Amino acid sequence: MKKKSEVTLDYLDECHLDKSLEKMFLLVASETLERFSLGKCTISLSLISENKMRNMNKKYRNIDRTTDVLSFAYLENDDEMSDIKDLGCILIDPKRAKKQAEEFSHPFKRELSFLFIHGILHLLGYDHQNEEDSEKMFALQNEILNNLTIDFYTDQKKLKKELKIAQSMAITPYSHFNVGAVLITKSGEYIRGFNIENSSYPATICAERVAIYSAYSRGNNKDDFVAMGLITSSNETSTCCGVCRQVMIELLPSYIPVYIYNDKMDKMLRLTVKDMLPYAFTDEDLKS
Ligand SMILES: [Zn+2]
After folding, report:
1. Tell me, which fold does domain 156-287 have in CATH?
2. How far is CA 7 from each of CA 39, 100, 113, 260, 283, rounded to the nearest angstrom?
3. Among 20, 125, 159, 186, which one has the highest count of C-beta atoms within 10 angstroms of its own C-beta?
């Protein structure tokens, strides 16, 4: 049996960006290659200028304009002396990545990760020359990007502040168990919810659902949500009730992180929506 992939990154930043990016790229590489059984392998990544990218594109592809990402697979891997597979080299122009991130209004680091995953898949033989191949490549690329453990969107400091405000708004004359929920959207909205109790007990509603329904009522769609936060008045990180889990799996993307805080906010549990409801009953079951 082949070992899972264990990747080393040969990283060169000619554009002198934030040093923490190297760690991010290594994580993206390992989480991408985790899906393939390559054993020990290495990838080179260089961040280069627009000019250099243009020259490389002209030299190797005979296209006289710049581009966002280029990959060069090493086809020969006949170095018998080494058990480390050299996958090849990826070039990214971060200036162009920045422009594209602004165009699609998503975070710069997400665009860089997207381009890197795209480059890695090319090194592994994926391509987008025809419709069938591109469908396959783009589906995998998005799946990998969405399921990265890196959260490109959440400002934890802001989330914690919003959660405390949401929790303080809870209407709980019967249980005094105050819950705050916050849904974060791609456009940077932090939408609050809190539990609302009623003397007719079944009319009570949880914070999670108030946040979700409120977010939808503002015109958001499922794909707009990037993370959720929760806080309860418990000393431990209490999670959501079954009804909320069912609503969450249907109305939120299954891969988004859910950060669950205890009352003092000195404990935090990070799960995804799908972690909370495995084997969920969904609209797909109604169709089958
Ligand atoms: Zn609930």
Report:
1. Cytidine Deaminase; domain 2 (3.40.140)
2. 8, 28, 16, 31, 38
3. 159
